[in-house]
Amino acid sequence: MQSLATSLVVLKVNRCEPELIKPAKPTPHEFKLLSDIDDQEGLRFQFPVMQFYRNNPSMEGKDPVKVIREALAKTLVFYYPFAGRLKEGPNRKLMVECTGEGILFIEADAEVTLEQLGDALPPPSFWLEELLFDVPGSSGMLDCPLLLIQVTRLECGGFIFALRFNHTMSDAQGIVQFLTTLGEMASGVSAPSIPPVWERHVFNARDPPRITCSHPEYDEVPDTKGTMIPLHEMVHRSFFFGPSEISAIRKLVPPDLSHGSTTFEILTAFLWKYRTIAVQPEASEEMRLMCTVNARGKYNLVELPAGYYGNSFVVPAAVAAAGELSRNPLGYALELVRKAKENVTEEYIRSVASLMVIKGRPQFTVVRALVVSDLRRAGFQEVDFGWGKAVYAGVARGGGGAIPGATSFYNAFTNKKGENGVMIPFCLPAPAMDKFVEELDGMLKRKNGETKSQLIISSL
């Protein structure tokens, strides 16, 4: 097992005072309701993203800070709700007051080159606080800026684009749509190729609301064992699963089940099982695995207008006793994960929206739960501000979100060998992390006949 982030440079960042970027033209002053999927408690958090860009000789003489700042003002003319502020109405209903106040923007310089940052680009970001400064008073849900952006120039001519967005406003695909428009505006176009569409009513509860499906992802489970540990007390590590690791994991399930399962399903079942073994709960305790299922794309569960940038996913849960999950072959967990995903239909999504209204927009179940979200095809790495595609783009750190310490995001990543795979940041208490690494490392080495694993790519 090898950690590649062993020799870190000291990062000195010089920041200018934060400023508000307002739309370049007057925009409507109005109130816009979020959907009943948007404003649930589980999405009321700030989501950080980091994007690293190399120097591009064709952009010689152009300042990424100036280019992006000007493009932001133009982009906010079309995405003007982002320049507003969230308000809360009856029954905790969230809405945006489109005030045009603007988003927070920070100009910065770092005394380092992209090459010197080396292997430490993937999460957990060692310099998150430096590269995405938490402006005092900016991180709340209500009456706060909905976007925080810091652009940090590097000595090599490259730069780092860091973004924090309020998750109630957009999911990953929605914010990538915004960033794509930002890139288009930076290139000089006058209007986005895909105009943004609000239309949040498509994910509202029925009238009257009706819960028609089972939703164990919102069960109220008391933490009688004291399992909830603060995020800052956990160990953060990122793991890379390339072709050989994924092939080894597939060999753990019967061929017919393997052939009918996606990489996401198999990898999720694998992590759920071995995380359970690592945290060592009592055999009778219920463990939950929640995975995001998007209504867009290949599932096409709800007809959405082109340009929709709100949240369009639900988080179904697979539930199993810890003892059963640990003792049974991997196929047991895999079938539970697949079943949870298959339960998601348009009716299921309508039922979730109704549950939000009836039960006061509850939080996801947080006790003995793991949440996973697949961002490999969200498109962060494709965003181009004129300097080309990002060297790395994705989450800044695992563990945040609805369930601190138990939320992991799957990111597309290419390792030093040029292998394309999945990079996953993970958080666990130190003893459990040691056990987790030992279990994964041992199993993968046995299956691949290797003497040395390269599973860990970064740690904090």
From TrEMBL:
<dbReference type="GO" id="GO:0016740">
    <property type="term" value="F:transferase activity"/>
</dbReference>
<dbReference type="InterPro" id="IPR023213">
    <property type="entry name" value="CAT-like_dom_sf"/>
</dbReference>
<keyword id="KW-0808">Transferase</keyword>
<dbReference type="InterPro" id="IPR050898">
    <property type="entry name" value="Plant_acyltransferase"/>
</dbReference>
<comment type="similarity">
    <text>Belongs to the plant acyltransferase family.</text>
</comment>
<protein>
    <recommendedName>
        <fullName>Benzyl alcohol O-benzoyltransferase</fullName>
    </recommendedName>
</protein>
<dbReference type="Pfam" id="PF02458">
    <property type="entry name" value="Transferase"/>
</dbReference>
